[in-house]
């Protein structure tokens, strides 16, 4: 399958008083056209930093930023900042930021807000001319067109989230990064939003990179799942396979901790804490919490392709592969 | 906005502040409409010559309500009227005799006596003989002289007359015979004999008996009616305060936003300039500008704004913007490509308006007082009639030591009133825009 986005060995490290934070540390990832990839991981594992790294929204304390990000044949890290701003950001690749309900300028009306990207990217000469497109964008996310005249504080959290999605879609990008789109929303609103995203994916043929800590959310929308742990993607594969039968011990533990409709079992908590990203342990980063830990785990595991599953970063499968080989 | 306005009206202090403010604005509008700017400046700078018939150091007329009407008002008597007798003395010379008679109702002395003469002639001026008849019937000759076309004979300043009478004429002529320290009410008359030497020649005489009260606000040492500077001081004070507050607070807001957004050396530079500026003493700098360069109110305003731009406001607003800069919506805006200037103007600055507005309103009286302070230091605008100038004049004349309290209290009251208006309004605005201070 042709991939729209290919990420190779992406690294994003921050300087802090405590030392170097390796928030994104060698991420490999692919997103195919018109498909949804869920980046699944617990909080603090570097998911949001991954989103920032993809959009080149770097904070001031960046220490190290490297790797290859190819979107539709364009090497994003090579582009000058201005070209990236004009040709990539929001045009090909947009973002629904984390806590999107707070992502609206409180002093702009919703309509002006949604028109901002259109105006900033020269699609209209004056923000007022964008009215038609703004109303279409609002209707697309299921909001009445007359919401354009409201201020963000007059909207509920779910509505604001929809506005943020409308804004992300208004320039028809190929890929939208959704950073925790349903966190802080009640379950009903979450379900509504998931249905909306599904519809949009069908109607517009957009790829989504869905960043979430919630297995249920991922299972709703994802075609593929990338399991992230301590700044690395430890497993990447088809969603239906992953959700039924994860390969990585972390994936298995995660699955065991979630309630399932289909099976009769008690959720098992995952003991321990993820390692600090300041000085991650050498070798496999999950080793400390891993029930299947064995001798080679103190060395960094390789990324092993597994037949019919995808890739996994674990010595267990490297052993198998070498044994089979 | 309308919600905020409605909220504002819930606070009695805001309503009171707005009411006082409305009054001051109405006064300003009235001043500007009733006395055109040029006229106001002319009247103020010409001084005594513009109002010769006003008494000096007169108290406001309404003080009479408290004093039971005992304070004399200025009396003006014109002549000749009706009873003038004219006879010819031959060779074209005519003698004109008439009396300017008036009843003096007060038991306090007038402050001054003067005779204004308006003589019509071609070459040879008429000759005047003036005499005074007291209520007791005795007649005192005052002076004889040939007036110019428009002339004033100030009896009270005539040293010769004073010596002849053995005291000031306004005292000696008005004193009650039995109680010389009190004036006696009664009918006085100024008798005028005029010799006219030309056929078309004529003479008009006006006697002014200066009182102790005048108009709404009284007069100063130059006989100027104080309603003029008090009225005109209002728009000047409001304009000065408003412009200085707008100029300094809006510009420091923008500068703080720019510094907080760009960070790095831009922020560093702004902060260092601010720190240096904060330790510069403002008043001495203004005094230097006033002494060495110009005392014009507008130059001083410019200097105040310039000093205020990098004032303490920059620090306050920067702290606020450093928070706003990290807000999710700013991060989102960065993602959809908002450029720096637009970010500052549309995403950062509006967030500070709720903080700015109350602070700004409470800043205004500070600047109004500053104008008065500068005037008191002798650095007031040389031409504009302002409240500060009135206080300065009063202070120079030692008004409080000689009992002219009205002279100081009137402008001081207006200063306090405007300060009160803005402060009341500012506190209420603070409550409206700072939800944590809101009373529930």
Q: How does this model look, in words?
A:
The complex is a heterodimer of chains A (325) and B (440). By secondary structure, chain A is α/β, with parallel strands linked by helices. Helix content of chain A is 31%, strand content 25%. In chain A, helix 3 (110-120) crosses helix 4 (131-140). Chain A starts with a strand and ends with a helix. With 440 residues, chain B is α+β, with helices and mostly antiparallel strands. Helix content of chain B is 53%, strand content 16%. Chain B has 15 helices and 9 strands. The longest helix of chain B is centred in the last third of the chain and has 40 residues, at 340-379. Chain B starts with a helix and ends in a 7-residue tail after the last helix. Chains A and B meet through helix 3 of A and helix 12 and helix 13 of B.
Name the features:
heterodimer, A: 325 residues, alpha/beta, 8-stranded mixed β-sheet, 4-stranded antiparallel β-sheet, 10 helices, 12 strands, globular, B: 440 residues, alpha+beta, 5-stranded antiparallel β-sheet, 16% strand, elongated
CA-CA gap between termini of chain B = 20 Å
Secondary-structure element series of chain A: EEEHEEHEHHHEHEHEEHHEEH
Return the structural class of chain A.
alpha/beta
Assign a percent range to the helix content of chain A.
Answer: 25-40%
Percentage of residues in DSSP E strands of chain B: 15-25%
Strand order of the largest sheet of chain A: 6-7-8-3-9-10-12-11
Coarse structural class of chain B: alpha+beta
For the largest interface, the chains and their residue counts are: A-B, 26 and 18 residues
Let me know the average pLDDT of chain A. 87
As a whole number of angstroms, the C-alpha radius of gyration of chain A is 20 Å
Largest sheet of chain B: 5 strands, antiparallel
């Amino acid at each position: 399958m042709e991939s729209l986005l290919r990420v190779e060995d992406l690294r994003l490290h921050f300087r802090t008083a405590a030392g170097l934070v390796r928030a994104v540390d060698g991420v490999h990832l692919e997103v195919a056209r018109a498909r949804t990839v869920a980046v699944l991981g617990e909080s603090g594992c570097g998911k949001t930093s991954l989103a920032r790294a993809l959009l080149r929204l770097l904070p001031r304390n960046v220490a190290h930023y490297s790797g290859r990000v190819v979107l539709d044949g364009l090497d994003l890290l090579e582009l000058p900042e201005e070209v990236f701003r004009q040709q990539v950001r929001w045009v090909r690749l947009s973002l629904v930021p984390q806590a999107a309900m707070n992502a609206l300028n409180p002093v702009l009306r919703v309509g002006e807000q949604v028109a901002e990207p259109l105006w900033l990217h020269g699609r209209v000469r004056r923000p007022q001319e964008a009215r038609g497109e703004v109303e279409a964008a609002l209707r697309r996310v299921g909001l009445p067109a007359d919401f354009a005249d409201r201020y963000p504080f007059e909207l509920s959290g779910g509505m604001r989230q929809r506005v943020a999605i409308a804004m992300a879609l208004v320039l028809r990008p190929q890929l939208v990064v959704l950073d925790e789109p349903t966190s802080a929303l009640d379950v009903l609103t979450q379900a509504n939003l998931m249905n909306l995203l599904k519809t949009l994916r069908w109607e517009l043929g957009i790829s989504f990179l869905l960043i979430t800590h919630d297995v249920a959310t991922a299972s709703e929308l994802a075609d593929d799942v990338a399991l992230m742990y301590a700044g690395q993607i430890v497993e990447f594969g088809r969603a239906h396979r992953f959700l039924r039968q994860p390969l990585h011990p972390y994936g298995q533990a995660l699955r065991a901790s979630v309630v399932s409709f289909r099976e009769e079992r008690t959720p098992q908590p995952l003991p321990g804490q993820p390692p600090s990203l300041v000085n991650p342990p050498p070798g496999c980063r999950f080793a400390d919490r891993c029930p299947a830990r064995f001798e080679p785990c103190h060395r960094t595991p390789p990324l092993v392709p597994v037949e019919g599953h995808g890739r996994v970063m674990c010595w267990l499968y490297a052993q198998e592969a070498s044994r089979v080989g | 906005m309308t919600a905020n306005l409605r909220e504002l009206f819930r606070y009695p202090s805001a309503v009171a502040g707005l009411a006082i403010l409305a009054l001051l604005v109405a006064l300003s509008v009235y001043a500007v409409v009733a006395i055109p700017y040029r006229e106001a400046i002319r009247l103020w700078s010409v001084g005594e010559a513009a109002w010769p018939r006003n008494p000096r150091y007169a108290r406001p007329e309404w003080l009479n309500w408290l004093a039971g009407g005992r304070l004399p008002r200025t009396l003006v008597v014109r002549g000749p009227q009706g009873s003038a007798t004219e006879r010819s003395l031959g060779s074209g010379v005519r003698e004109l005799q008439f009396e300017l008679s008036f009843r003096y109702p007060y038991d306090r002395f007038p402050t001054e006596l003067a005779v204004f003469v308006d003589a019509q002639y071609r070459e040879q001026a008429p000759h005047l003989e003036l005499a005074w008849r007291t209520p007791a019937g005795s007649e005192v000759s005052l002076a004889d002289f040939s007036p110019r076309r428009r002339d004033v004979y100030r009896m009270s300043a005539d040293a010769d007359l004073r010596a002849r009478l053995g005291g000031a004429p306004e005292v000696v002529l008005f004193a009650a015979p039995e109680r010389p320290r009190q004036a006696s009410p009664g009918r006085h008359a100024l008798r005028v004999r005029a010799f006219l030497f030309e056929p078309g020649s004529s003479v008009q005489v006006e006697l002014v008996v200066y009182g102790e009260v005048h108009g709404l606000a009284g007069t100063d040492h130059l006989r100027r009616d104080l309603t003029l500077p008090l009225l005109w001081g209002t728009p000047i004070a409001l304009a000065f305060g408003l412009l200085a507050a707008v100029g300094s607070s809006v510009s420091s807001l923008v500068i703080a936003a720019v510094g907080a957004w760009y960070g790095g050396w831009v922020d560093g530079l702004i902060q260092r300039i601010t720190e240096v500026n904060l330790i510069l003493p403002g008043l001495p700098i203004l005094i230097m500008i006033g002494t060495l360069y110009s005392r014009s109110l507008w130059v001083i305003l410019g200097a105040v704004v310039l000093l205020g731009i990098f004032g303490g406001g920059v620090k306050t607003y920067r702290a606020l913007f450093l928070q706003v800069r990290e807000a999710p919506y700013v991060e989102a805006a960065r993602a959809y490509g908002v450029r720096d200037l637009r970010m500052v103007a549309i995403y950062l600055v509006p967030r500070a308006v709720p903080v700015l507005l109350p602070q700004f309103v409470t800043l205004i009286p500070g600047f109004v007082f500053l104008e008065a302070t500068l005037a008191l230091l002798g650095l007031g605008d040389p031409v504009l009639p302002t409240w500060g100038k009135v206080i300065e004049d009063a202070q120079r004349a030692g008004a409080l030591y000689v009992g002219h309290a009205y002279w100081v209290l009137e402008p001081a009251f207006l200063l306090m009133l405007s300060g009160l208006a803005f402060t009341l309004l500012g506190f209420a605005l603070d409550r409206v825009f700072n939800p944590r201070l809101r009373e529930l």
